[in-house]
Amino acid sequence: MDRIAKLKEFLTANPADSFVQHALALEYVKAGDDAEARKLFENILNRDENYIGSYYHLGKLLERNYEREGAIKWYEMGMLKAKEVGDTHAYNELQAAWEDLAE
After folding, report:
1. For residue range 42-97, what is the model confidence (pLDDT) as tens digits?
2. How far apart are CA 78 and CA 60, in angstroms?
């Protein structure tokens, strides 16, 4: 069974599992299906705004799709959340991505 099918199977058992949704979104990115990946990243962040890693990956996806303003928005929201929860590493990654676009 391929990874996408296996992750979908896991989600059937626990549809609100942010870790599995994030992993599935990354598999969709690898497969070139940015639309499905975007839905999953947005779903995660709308449900669990503290799932910090998804901000970065959603921002990068939007950058690839020439949605600069959307990417900046998600990076900024991610930086706020990372700072709020004390995740310095994620904050620095989001800030670097944001600076690349905002300049």
Report:
1. 999 999 999 999 999 999 999 999 999 999 999 999 999 999 999 999 999 999 99
2. 12
- For the chain, give me the number of helices (H) and strands (E)? 6, 0
- How many structural domains does the chain have? 1
Encoded tokens for 68: 């600069």
**Tokens matching residue 49:** 């705004």
Instruction: Give just the sign of the alpha carbon dihedral 56, 62, 63, 65.
Output: positive
CATH number for the domain that contains residue 61: 1.25.40.10
CB 98 within 8 A of CB 72: yes
Residue 2 is classified by DSSP as -
Residue labelled with tokens 């947005």: 42
Cα 49–78–34 angle (5° rounding)? 85
Residue with tokens 């600076």: 99
Q: Give the pLDDT confidence of 31-56 residue by residue, as tens digits.
A: 999 999 999 999 999 999 999 999 99
Query: 86 lies in which domain range?
Result: 3-102
